[in-house]
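HUMAN: I'm a chemist; might I ask for a sequence paired with its structure tokens?

ASSISTANT:
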Amino acid sequence: MSSIKHVENNDLDGILGDGSQAVLVDFHAEWCGPCKAMAPALDELSEEMADTLTIAKVDIDKNQELAVKHNVGSVPTLMVFMGQEQKAMRVGALGKSELRDWVAKSIE
């Protein structure tokens, strides 16, 4: 079962926490085809890396303030955070293995 957290009411700071666990944030939109195509890979990754990674999804249409705050210009935009500090950013859909490798390098 997927443990992906869905950001509501712009409450990303609460999900990012204190930095004890890395957080992968997927800025997406319901109308975005590449975002939908990447969803299964995110679900699988959330299960495989549950001990070391939290995955959060931010719908940019429902959380426009967050999209502006984090300079999201295209979807999907992926960001890795440790606490409130952004460690990496990538724009565009990724396959599961590419996604896993990118996240692993980002949190080394």
